[in-house]
Amino acid sequence: MKLCYNQATTLENSNLETDLELCEKHGYDYIEIRTMDKLPEYLETHSIEDLASYFEKNHIKPLAMNALVFFNNRTDGEHKENVKEFKDMLEKAKHINAPYIVAVPLVTEEKILKEDIKKSAISVLQEFSELAEPYGIKIAVEFVGHPQCTINTFGQAYEIVEAVGKDNVGLVLDCFHFHAMGSKMQDLQKADGDKIFILHIDDTENFPIGFLTDEDRVWPGHGAIDLQGIISTAVERGFDGAVSVELFRPEYYKLSPDEAIQTAKDTSLEVLNQIHVKN
């Protein structure tokens, strides 16, 4: 199993160029590129060809463009903008050979019926699937474990992906999000591991379900999440993709990028080695 680095872990204390250099130094296999901030910042002084060249010359490779946010239950105008952004992400992903684009569901204060959420999500993902198919790129839907996210449990997200019925549409299984809204292990135990494209490894302080926020994340193995149960079950169900460490801890942003990236790797491997998952 390969280890990936998600740029959120050094969101406030690094940039793409530095993250790439340090991930290469510390032996990561992949990186998830933040398309809403880190990639545009990089492209102010570099070209997409520069980025493609870096990946060609080094061990580390791009795993995903992260992310197209709030893809479902949008107005017609908002949807058109999302389609435009998605097409641009497809072109950039193709250029650097990134196999996945992460898609994040709508987070809103508005109450939306679950059947309307499902209907919208299926329609949009089927449209995106057709757009992505000629590129050979897959869409990884990341449910968000927050009460105000329209798709916030593994079971709900898996049901939608199953209904989409496309080989290039699957899930991001984020351990924090799985834990944060009380996703059911029974749902994961029944899932097809091939539908889990990316696994995010992270941990959290022990707050009640529904109160957790991204800032509560801690190094893998340093918190309350049953990482052994979640990851080992995913592997038993057939998941064999990359494990990506993704944290948003404010105090970790005070560390040097080098220390943060090294610690993220060390703590992730410690957890994975305990559950006999080979990197």
UniProtKB/TrEMBL annotation:
Domain Xylose isomerase-like TIM barrel: start-end pairs: 20-262
One Pfam annotation reads AP_endonuc_2
Q: Which UniProt keywords apply?
A: Isomerase
Q: Does the keyword Isomerase apply?
A: yes
Question: Per UniProt, what is one GO molecular function of this protein?
Answer: isomerase activity
Check the record and name the InterPro entries matching this protein.
IolE/XylAMocC-like (IPR050312), Xyl_isomerase-like_sf (IPR036237), Xyl_isomerase-like_TIM-brl (IPR013022)
User: What Gene3D superfamilies does this protein map onto?
Assistant: Divalent-metal-dependent TIM barrel enzymes
Origin: domain of life:
Bacteria
Q: What is this protein called?
A: 2-keto-myo-inositol isomerase
* Organism, as annotated: Sinobaca qinghaiensis
